[in-house]
Amino acid sequence: LSLGVKMGCFTFIKVMMILFNLAIFLGGGTLLGVGIWVTVDGDSFLDIFGALSSSVMQVVNVGYFLIVIGAILLVIGFLGCYGAQKESKCLLMMFFSVVLIIFIAEIAVAVVALVYTGLAETLLSGVLTPVLKEKYGVDDHFTDVWNLTMTEVHCCGVSNYTDFNNTHWLDKYGTYPAPCSIGGLLSLACPHLCGCLLQGCFDQIVKEIRTNAGVAGGVAAGIAALEIASMAVAMYLYCRLDQK
User: Fold this and answer.
1) Is the pTM of the predicted complex or chain greater than 0.70?
2) Which domain range does residue 134 map to?
3) 3-state secondary structure the chain
4) Whether 135 and 188 share a structural domain
5) Model confidence at 168, in pLDDT bands (50, 70, 90)?
6) For 79-117, how does the pLDDT look when each residue is reduced to its tens digit (9 = 90+)?
7) Are residues 60 and 148 in the same domain?
C-alpha cells in the first residue's frame, strides 16, 4: 500500500509537472510570436496598446525583449515537460539548473535595483538622451513613438525641452517639437513664455513605474514562488527516479 501511494504521488506530480511546463512552453511561444510581430510591425502594437506601450518602448525595445523572454520560456517549458514525460534525469537537471540561474539573476537584479536605484536612473537617462538627439527627426518610427509618448504623458524630451538642442530636428525646422508646447509650436526665443512643458518624460515614466511598484513586486514574488516550486518538483522527480 505504501509503495502504491508513493507511485500514485509520483505519477500525480509528474503529470502536474508536464501540464505546468506545457503551459509555460505555450506561453513562451505566444510571447515569441508577439515579439516578432512587434519587431516587424511596431506601429500596430502602438495603435492597440497606446501611450503605455510607447512609454515602455522608450526604456526597452519591446520586440526584442519579448523574443528573448519567449525563447527562454520555450526552453524551460520544453526541458520540464519533455524531461518529466520521458523521466529523463539529464533533462530534469538541466531544467533545474536553468531555473536556478534565472532565479539567482532575478535576485541580483532586484538587489541592484533597490540599492542603486538613483545610479541606475542616472545611467539610463544618460543613455536615452544621446539616442533621442541622434534619432529624433531622422528615424520616422522612433519620432512617432516619442511624439505619442510626449503627447499622452504630457512631457518633453528625456530630461526637458533642452534635450532637443543641437539636434537634426531643431536644425531643420527651427522649433522644438509640437508636443513640447502647450499652445502651439515652441519658439527658440521664448521657451518659457510659449508654455513649454518643462517636465521630462523620463521622470514621468519612472513615476509611473514607482506608482505600480506594489503590483510589480507582487507579480515578481509570485513568479519567484513558482520558480522555487518548480525547482522543488524537478528535484523530487529526479531523486525518485533513483528509487524506481
Assistant:
1) no
2) 114-243
3) CHHHHHHHHHHHHHHHHHHHHHHHHHHHHHHHHHHHHHHHCHHHHHHHHHHHHHHHHHHCCHHHHHHHHHHHHHHHHHHHHHHHHHCCHHHHHHHHHHHHHHHHHHHHHHHHHHHCHHHHHHHHHHHHHHHHHHHCCCCHHHHHHHHHHHHHHCCCCCCCHHHHCCCHHHHHHCEECHHHECCCCEECCCCCCCCECCCCHHHHHHHHHHHCHHHHHHHHHHHHHHHHHHHHHHHHHHHHHHHC
4) yes
5) confident
6) 999 998 888 899 999 999 999 999 998 888 778 777 766
7) no
